[in-house]
Recover the amino acids of this structure.
């Protein structure tokens, strides 16, 4: 999962970005010679390094200080834009850099606060970060409604001569930023804009209501004999550790629709009745959302019509690579048609196995698919399941996965990935971490092997702990971009990206220090590593175009590319060594794992409808 905030004047990014070679007007020079980034490039004094390697972030209350400083700096930039509308003091190129400077400045704080509130072990830090996040979210809404910022773009994008004078990246920046403003109806007359904003407010409220309903309606109770069926799949102590129980005893048990519990039961329980109960609860537990969904569809459609789109689908896809609903449906229908025959064959196989194992002529049901898929895969591939357990148990560890990352980037990109020691003020796990070497935050720096040029920093926060975000995500603390600071020889410096790869994979074994992983956990790590490399290898003038700040229907591509390597036989021989003996994975086990990847793939494709 990519952690990406849906904000125009924020990315997964950071501050600054001025091209050193641009012709600077006096007004441009005056502002940027007196304004410094709230959290600029790496500080010269190592003692200034704070949380996430950022300066001026050493204690919780610093978040409020740097948030206020960021808003002050942004307001100065906004005034520069307003003045230029009257005097034309800024050139088109300079205007784009000032707009990106606004985005950089506010993102330098809100992105750090997003990560902090998601992962920090200290409640005080999380609270301060959440406060700063809310402050800046409200400020970003103000920026997005600032007509003067939008008006500064129109003379650029509407003038073909000016557009041709800009670089391809600058043209893209101008065009995308204008379109993003217009998605909020800023280009419409006041009355129509107010109507769209009101509808958008309704949409946001309904989306929030839909999500909150799901959050507050996750639990349900099962009775005997399903309780006994449950305990044959998941031991009682595991249920008690993971799910608060409203009723003590063996006659009734509280379950949850959380994926790690519900999907495990659908996949591993041999009880058709239990699987049916879980499946039905997952899909019907929140009936009040039917009315919310109907209202949301209606409000979204009305908003899109007022914005000049034929439907909400057209509005939603207008900034995506797919562009139109027609393109999407064409693609989906082609994929569906191509997989139809294989899908029917898979269904026939599953139905046959169900009939044999249950001695029944009952048709295959939705709650049967995951279970019987697993049964057949285990039989075909000698005990190998989707998670990489069974024949691969014990062969994957965190350390070998990291060695695999190093080898992969060296071979693919000519990059050296080096672990470095963290300073005490830049880490966020100290309150709960007893073994910092194997169970805490780790920091890696990347260098080009030819000229030893620094490329950026990646933090790894891999294991669960109290108060931490419970899923897997890539967070960008600081985007790469050209810095407003110049080196001693006058050359433009590049602000290096800082990213954090956050997961909740298996912690180290007690008294061992070794974190043994399933194959699916390794796949998760390399998926997020793909996002990290996308950010670290991006080299753009503007942070607004950096790394994962790309079209949402492309952004998962680098992560899926990295996933592919954990299914590659050569790479599996690099990362797969038994944690006790050091023995490599047997060739037959690797062969079965690779084959299992494509088994029932048509079922997965068809399930998207």
């Amino acid at each position: 999962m990519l952690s990406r905030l849906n904000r125009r004047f924020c990315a997964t990014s950071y501050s600054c970005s001025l091209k050193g070679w641009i012709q600077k007007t006096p007004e441009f020079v005056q502002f940027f010679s007196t304004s410094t980034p709230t959290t600029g490039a790496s500080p010269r004094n190592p003692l200034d390094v704070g949380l996430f390697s950022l300066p001026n972030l050493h204690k919780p209350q610093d978040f409020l200080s740097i948030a206020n400083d960021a808003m002050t700096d942004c307001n100065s930039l906004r005034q520069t834009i307003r003045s230029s509308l009257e005097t034309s003091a800024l050139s088109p190129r300079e205007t784009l850099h000032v707009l990106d400077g606004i985005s950089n400045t506010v993102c330098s704080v809100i992105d750090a606060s997003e990560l902090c509130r998601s992962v920090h072990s200290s409640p005080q830090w999380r609270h301060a970060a959440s406060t700063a996040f809310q402050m800046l979210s409200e400020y970003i809404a103000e920026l997005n409604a600032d007509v003067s910022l939008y008006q500064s773009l129109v003379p650029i994008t509407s003038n073909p001569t000016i557009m041709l004078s800009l670089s391809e990246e600058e043209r893209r920046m101008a065009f995308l930023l204008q379109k993003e403003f217009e998605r909020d109806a800023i280009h419409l007359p006041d009355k129509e804009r107010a109507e769209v904003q009101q509808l958008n407010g309704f949409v946001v409220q309904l989306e929030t209501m839909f999500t909150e309903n799901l959050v507050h309606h996750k639990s349900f109770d099962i009775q005997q004999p399903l309780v006994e069926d449950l305990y044959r799949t998941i031991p009682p102590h595991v249920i008690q550790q993971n799910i608060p129980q409203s009723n003590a005893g063996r006659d009734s048990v509280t379950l949850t629709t959380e994926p790690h519990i519900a999907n495990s039961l659908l996949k591993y329980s041999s009880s058709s009745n239990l699987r049916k109960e879980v499946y039905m609860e997952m899909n019907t537990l929140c009936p009040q959302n039917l009315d919310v969904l109907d209202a949301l569809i209606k409000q979204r459609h009305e908003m899109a019509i007022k914005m000049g789109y034929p439907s909400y689908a057209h509005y939603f896809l207008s900034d995506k690579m797919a562009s139109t609903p027609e393109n999407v449906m064409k693609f989906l229908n082609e994929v569906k048609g191509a997989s139809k025959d294989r899908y029917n064959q898979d269904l026939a196989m599953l139905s046959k196995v169900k009939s044999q194992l249950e001695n029944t002529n009952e048709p295959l049901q939705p709650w049967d698919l995951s279970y019987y898929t697993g049964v057949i895969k285990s039989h075909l591939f000698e005990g190998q399941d989707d998670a990489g357990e069974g024949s691969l148990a014990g062969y994957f560890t965190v350390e070998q996965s990291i060695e695999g990352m190093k080898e992969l980037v060296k071979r693919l990109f000519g990059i050296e990935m080096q672990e470095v020691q963290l300073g005490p003020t830049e880490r966020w796990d100290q309150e709960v971490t007893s073994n910092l070497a194997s169970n805490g935050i780790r920091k890696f720096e990347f260098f080009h092997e030819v000229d030893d040029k620094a490329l950026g920093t990646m933090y790894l926060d891999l294991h669960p702990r109290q108060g931490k975000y419970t899923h897997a995500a890539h967070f960008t603390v600081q985007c790469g971009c050209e810095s407003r600071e110049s080196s001693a020889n006058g050359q433009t410096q590049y602000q290096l990206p800082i990213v954090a790869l956050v997961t909740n994979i298996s912690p180290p074994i007690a008294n061992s220090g070794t974190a043994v992983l399933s194959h699916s956990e390794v796949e998760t790590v390399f998926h997020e590593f793909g996002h990290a490399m996308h950010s670290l290898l991006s080299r753009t003038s503007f942070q607004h175009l950096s790394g994962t700040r790309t079209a949402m229907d492309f952004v998962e591509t680098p992560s899926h590319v990295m996933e592919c390597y954990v299914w590659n036989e050569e790479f599996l021989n690099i990362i797969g060594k038994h944690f006790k003996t050091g023995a490599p994975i047997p060739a037959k086990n690797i062969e079965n794992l690779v084959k299992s990847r494509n088994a029932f793939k048509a079922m997965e494709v068809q399930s998207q409808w």
About this structure: The CA atoms of residues 265 and 275 lie 7 Å apart. The two ends are 21 Å apart (CA to CA). The chain is about 55% helix and 10% strand. Residues 1-44, 432-438 have pLDDT under 50 and may be disordered.
